[in-house]
């Protein structure tokens, strides 16, 4: 596993004219025709460096999307995989995760957790962390439903 380089050695930039990726109104990229190479290119718009990490998360996102396309009864046979990002402070782990969640239209929360978090000695307990993630997901779903209803209302009138 290659270590992530320091954020201090890289620069982050944004140029909205660089992208050939189709984005809908909720800024979620349409993943049906988005191979890992285009996901990496979209991440390159915001994150400089970390090529190995961007490639790995792009492949993971595409694989997750492909698993969701499998008929429901077969999904139980496919074991989902998760991502664990390890690196020094400031190397861009959070930014990569945040941008990837935005591409996928998934909720994202940032929590500082330690080995003591699980038992509630330091920081927030795991229940409150999970509650925050569920709350973020509910807001995301309600926002999508609101936009769908607004679009339907515009088409109806």
Give the secondary structure arrangement, pairings included.
Blueprint lengths: L35 H9 L6 H19 L2 H4 L17 H12 L21 H31 L1
Question: What does the model show?
Answer:
With 157 residues, this protein is mainly α. The chain is built from five helices and no strands. The chain has helices spanning 36-44, 51-69, 72-75, 93-104, 126-156. It is globular, with a radius of gyration of 18 Å.
Radius of gyration, CA atoms, in whole angstroms? 18 Å
Task: Describe the sheet with the most strands.
Answer: none
Order of helices and strands: HHHHH
Structural class: mainly alpha
Can you tell me the residue ranges where pLDDT is under 50 for at least 5 consecutive residues? 1-28
Structure keywords:
157 residues; mainly alpha; ATP-dep_Clp_protease_ClpX; 48% helix; ATP-dependent protease ATPase subunit HslU; disordered N terminus
Task: Provide a concise account of the structure shown.
The chain is mainly alpha-helical. Helix content is 48%, strand content 0%.
């Amino acid at each position: 596993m290659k270590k992530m380089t320091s954020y201090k050695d890289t620069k982050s930039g944004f140029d909205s004219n660089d992208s050939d990726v189709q984005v809908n109104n909720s800024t979620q990229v349409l993943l049906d025709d988005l191979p890992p190479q285009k996901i990496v290119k979209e991440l390159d718009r915001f994150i400089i460096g970390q090529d190995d990490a961007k490639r790995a998360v792009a492949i993971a996102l595409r694989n997750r999307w492909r698993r969701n396309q499998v008929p429901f009864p077969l999904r139980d046979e496919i074991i989902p995989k998760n991502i664990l990002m390890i690196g020094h402070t400031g190397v861009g782990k959070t930014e990569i995760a945040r941008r990837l969640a935005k591409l996928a239209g998934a909720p994202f929360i940032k929590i500082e957790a330690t080995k003591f978090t699980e038992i509630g000695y330091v920081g927030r307990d795991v229940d409150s962390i999970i509650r925050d993630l569920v709350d973020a997901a509910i807001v995301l779903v309600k926002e999508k439903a609101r936009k769908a209803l607004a679009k339907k209302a515009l088409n109806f009138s």
